[in-house]
Amino acid sequence: MPTQLLTTKLYIPPVRPGLVSRPRLIERLNAGLRAGRKLALLSAPAGFGKTTLLSEWVGQILDIGDWILDSGETSQSPISNSQYPQVGWVSLDEGDNDPARFMAYLVSALQTIEKSIGKGTLVAFQAPQPPPVESVLTALVNEMAAVLQDDRPFILVLDDYHVITARPIHSALTFLLDHLPPQMHLVIATRVDPPLPIARLRGRGQLTELRQNDLRFTVDEVKEFLNRGMGLKLAVDDVAALASRTEGWIAGLQMAAVSMQQREDTPGFVRAFAGSNRYIMDYLIEEVLQRQPEGLQTFLLHTAILDRLTGPLCDAVVGEIEDWRSKIGNRVQSPISNIQSLISNLQSQAILEYLESSNLFIVPLDSERQWYRYHHLFADLLRKRLRQAHPDLVPTLHGRASLWYEQNGLVAAAIDHALAAKDFYRAAHLIDELAETLWGRGEQTSLSTWLAALPDELVTSRPHLCACQAMVLLMAGQPDAAERRLQSAERLLGSTTEEAALEQQGMVAAARALSAYFRGDGPAIIRFSRRALEMLPEGNAMWRGGAAVNLGDAYRWSGDLSAANRAYTEAMKAGQATGNTFLVMLVGIKQAFTQMHQGRLQQALEVCRQQLELLDERGLSDAPMAAGVYAVWGYILCEWNDLDKASSYVQKACELSERGHSVGLLGLSHLTLVRILCARRDVTGAEETLHKLERLVRESNAPVWITSGAAAWRVWLWVAQGKLDAAAQLLRERGISVDGDVIYPREAERLSLARLLIAQGKSEEAARSLEQPLQQAEADERVPWVIAMSILRALALHAQGDVEAALASLERALSLAELEGYVRVFLDEGPAMAELLRKVLGAQRKGRRAASQGIAPGYVSRLLAAFDVSERGTGPPGETSSDARAQPLIEPLSERELEVLRLLASGLSNPEIAQELVIARSTVRSHVKSIYSKLNVHKRWDAAQRARDLGLL
């Protein structure tokens, strides 16, 4: 469900009639744009005309005849539309401190320029966790650079940025400024300097600044404003005096002008006009309000609580308080003709239009004049007066606004006003209804903020809110606080109906299953997930789906893959029943993992292909959930030693996972990246990625398989570097010992221990450390672990001098690995493994071994060829030697057919191969047909396997 947006926030404020044009400032903004500066900053206190200036500037830009193409001259020759800048605008308010909401508005502003920008970005925030805003910008920057025309500038205006206080948003904009596409220009209007790298941009000549002194009205501008814009006839001396005393402050001038419009003694007013801005504001608000009809004063005060105004909303808020309409009276001065008939049938919409025509500090937000807002300073002063004069009325007004917003489907705004009214019971009720929708679309930050604003005793009096807050806390890495909420929920179960209590118990159990998943406690996951599925009704698809996924994970960890598949099928049904694409994708990833655990790499790759096709059909191929698919695909390609292609897939996975900030996806993507970097001998890159993983572990309640995987790769790297003492210390701290129990998913650390012991010369201990884990992996049919442990056991036995036992263990690994073409699991063990493989090959040639295992000599030769390439460090990773590539075919494959074959084996579809090689799809089909004929196969999987046997890959 998409985030609810107020489209008026994306409207560019129209240029007001009678505007005092400010060409000197417009030219400075144009000069910054022409120079390609990254940022234009308008920073000044309230009332200095920042928004008005920007609306004038943007209005000129959007008017083709006024766009200045070069310094100070307007082109008179025909110009292509592609040369004119494009503009997106966001008017910010305090509610936009939610990163999900902020990004929704930012992307929507971009899409007013180019609809294809940000595809999948809004969907990113519907993930189970709210993403960090800065992560999303990486994809946005790349997309803007690709989609926007290089010669057409693009301007993004963020108005009223001072309302933003969320650090993640400041960090995101800092990232954006550091990586802006050359055609993009960011404009920020704010009352205070934001925590952005302003000094750095200034030093690099990348900043255009307009500050308080720049924005002050000159005497000539004051004269034009007062005498032409406001219809006054002031003498030159009076104009100069007001300009001096207001110091060019346009809000003060405007309030003074409104006060003077109905005065006869304007010189006396000017002489009395003095003091600091604060006192001027106090004085002028009194003057402005007191000179309005009583009913209009009431309207202004009562509607001041609203950030945005429209007739029906104002009607609902003002209601019949003090019968304000009857008190408008004949004192209203308006340019509208027949004012008396208007007043007799007066409604809020007409009042808003009157306020605009009278320059009473109101700003239209759309061209139809349906939505308005008060000048911020004016609104602040009205609210202050309202609190002073009618403090008991403020909650009533907010309550009415909350009701109107709820009735009109804007529940988020309804919650904000309910909280402002301190009507916490109403707010809790609305949050209770909206919580799961918010969770489904990724707005956990809003949910967390609202729940934190409620009194603790109110949250703990509602079991559903307790369960929802527990989920928020779990995702935030606060399991202890989450458990306290779950205990509160359980204490309340007896106070509700039996049916409701059963469902709430199911939610609590589902939350506890998630908590157990983060701890890696398989039995607890199964226990709580089963309980949740027994208690939750079929209609509660969200909670049932989550519980079923966790249950499937626990079964997969325990080796019961049939039970895991049944659970995943249950979760898939829940996702499909509710149209929850993310749940469907999550289940698909889990199913691919199941195939991988069975050693079925080709089938896992096919699942990934199907998932990406589904994502593409639904426009979600760049959504964070796609990271899991790319990561699994990259892992398989890495295992096949296609490191170039694997790296591209995993880099994509890392980019998407960082956008979504799912701990699980972040861990999976970066663990796979570490493996690729280690395979490439990129120690620096591997260290950096491990640091990122370890920081993730420290800062979040990361699942145990992430913590274990990060520790295992750290040990692998240290052993490869000879840092054996550091590796041993880490494993001791992790509680990994030769005789200790090992449960999945911590087997990676036991493998690291065996690797360390071999490096320390403790081969007997290494072999012993693998006995129990290997038996368990065999029993659970976790093929990749059987292969890896058999390899390490072979190395340990070989180090002891027991060559026969070592070869037997290695041949067991080879017999399992050959069918699916495992390569990297052997190469990762270095020269000692190459030596042992040569002995296997020698034994095969003598006819003494391996025949009974069914191991093709070509497979061992291909592994040794890959070792040769790796040890030489020449050629693309995974490329075999010329000898190994000798083709024992009647008709050899051409160079182009070899290229197609490699891409075919990597899992690309025919259209993807065509795109990669820049050839027609029909040409690809012809090559594939020829490859099949020469290899005497009929399927791509068989072609890939046959090519590996022949040493062609």
General description of the model:
With 953 residues, the protein is mainly α. Among the domains are: 209 residues, Rossmann fold, CATH 3.40.50.300; 61 residues, no CATH class; 96 residues; 200 residues, Alpha Horseshoe (Serine Threonine Protein Phosphatase 5, Tetratricopeptide repeat); 55 residues, Arc Repressor Mutant, subunit A (Orthogonal Bundle), CATH 1.10.10. Helix content is 63%, strand content 4%. It has 48 helices and seven strands. The strands form two sheets. Strands 2-3-4-1-5 form a five-stranded parallel β-sheet, sandwiched between helices. A hairpin with a 7-residue loop joins strand 6 and strand 7. The longest helix has 22 residues. The chain is elongated, with a radius of gyration of 34 Å. The chain starts with 22 loop residues before the first helix and ends with a helix. The relative contact order is 0.05. About 6% of the residues have low confidence.
Question: Architecture of the domain at 7-215 in CATH?
Answer: 3-Layer(aba) Sandwich
Strand order of the largest sheet: 2-3-4-1-5
CATH superfamily of the domain at 7-215: P-loop containing nucleotide triphosphate hydrolases
Structural class: mainly alpha
Approximate helicity band: 55-70%
Content of β-strand: under 5%
Described by the principal axes of the CA atoms, the overall outline is: elongated
CATH class of the domain at 7-215, please?
Alpha Beta
Mean pLDDT value: 80
Tally of helical segments: 48
CATH topology of the domain at 7-215: Rossmann fold
Q: Unreliable stretches, pLDDT < 50, 5 or more residues? A: 64-81, 321-346, 873-888
Gyration radius, in Å: 34 Å
Major sheet: size, sense and barrel closure? Answer: 5 strands, parallel
The count of strands amounts to: 7
**N-to-C CA distance:** 46 Å
